[in-house]
Amino acid sequence: FKDYFEDEQFQKVFHNYSFERHILQRHGIKLQGFHADTLHLARLYDTSRSSWEGAVQAKIQAAGAQQEHDEGDAGDVVGSLGEVGQAGRAL
Asked: Is 87 strand, coil or helix?
């Protein structure tokens, strides 16, 4: 695929171009013919969408609501999902 990626004649569309360019460079491929990055286009298309951090927060809130429903008390939502201390060890 090296010839394809280095041929500017073929316009290429990526998803997360910066990562893919990095990987290709590690394999000695100099990318030519970049046309678009769908990851960035999606962000431009709908800037109101929450970031991945917002999605994580929504999952935590949903877990808390489910726990409240199941137990009748929201309790410690983060503790129920598993806390992580220093060096990534579970508490």
From this structure: helix
